[in-house]
From TrEMBL:
Catalytic activity: UTP + H2O = UMP + diphosphate + H(+); dTTP + H2O = dTMP + diphosphate + H(+)
Subcellular location: Cytoplasm
Entry-linked InterPro entries: ITPase-like_fam, Maf-like
Keywords recorded for this protein, A-Z: Cytoplasm, Hydrolase, Nucleotide metabolism
Gene: maf
Primary enzyme class: hydrolase
Site entry: Important for substrate specificity: 14, 75, 159
UniProt-listed Enzyme Commission number(s): 3.6.1.9
GO molecular-function terms, A-Z: nucleoside triphosphate diphosphatase activity
Family from the record: Belongs to the Maf family. YhdE subfamily.
Protein name (record): dTTP/UTP pyrophosphatase
Job description of the protein: Nucleoside triphosphate pyrophosphatase that hydrolyzes dTTP and UTP. May have a dual role in cell division arrest and in preventing the incorporation of modified nucleotides into cellular nucleic acids.
Amino acid sequence: MQKIALILASASPRRKELLRRVGLQPEVHPPDVDETIIAGESPAALATRLASAKCRQVADALDAGSDRLILAADTVVVVDQAILGKPVDQDDARCMLESLSGRTHQVMTGVSLHRTDTRRQADGIGVTDVRFRVLDTAWIDWYLATGEPQDKAGAYGIQGAGAVLVDSIRGSWSNVVGLPLEMLPGWLEALGLSFQDLSVQPTRLP
């Protein structure tokens, strides 16, 4: 059976790597969507709205002639219902890390899947609770020196050196990275697809 081409509507190298690790080889088509927050919009609503908008934009830009699956996602880090985006500078990153220190926050990833031949779309969200250890000045100075915080929502990356800042998680680890892989098969089924319709052989790990 011919495999269905997977289009990743995201410029995130971390999402591409997550998909590669489970045997998927997406073609990348980064979207260009206005990510301005609507007044009164909840973090979950923002993540799902942006994922859906990214998915639709890429779907509209592609030819509808072949059967392809478009996947888009948007991840937000939330503490006290406040959304933490990517830090603008070192001081901003420090403030974010201080706000997460010793506390539990949520990582929400909205996901949207669109099948081009049927024009059916499935949307969902993954939520993971992440608890940080107490971070004193030495911890924060050390982590800032790694350079990791600068392009990460919430100023940390759990897949890198930021892993040692975490005390515990409840829920999907891959969701914190940017895509809840555990939920993907269920969303595919909603579109009449199986994981095997997309998958090639999983990449051998070193």
